[in-house]
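Q: PAS domain S-box-containing protein, please. Structure only.
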Amino acid sequence: MLDTHPRTAARAARTAVRPTGEERTFAADELIVSRTDPRGVITYANDVFLRVGAYSLDEVIGQPHDLIRHPTCRARSSRCCGRP
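A: Structure for PAS domain S-box-containing protein:
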């Protein structure tokens, strides 16, 4: 879904990944899907992505994809997934 709503303060405030220490699982037949624009800004996220990430759609649309990157994961390793 393309975001057509103005940015909110709550959305802008959630910029850092905060690990919970809780494992979140998903079924073998479920896929985590997100789509970004050329700048790496999230334009779509499916329900599995949102559930596993514990985000609402409003919290992720318009945010940089590294929103979901664990702080100890290097940016380079997350770029290899789905990008040439």
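A: Brief note, in case it's useful. Residues 1-14 have pLDDT under 50 and may be disordered.
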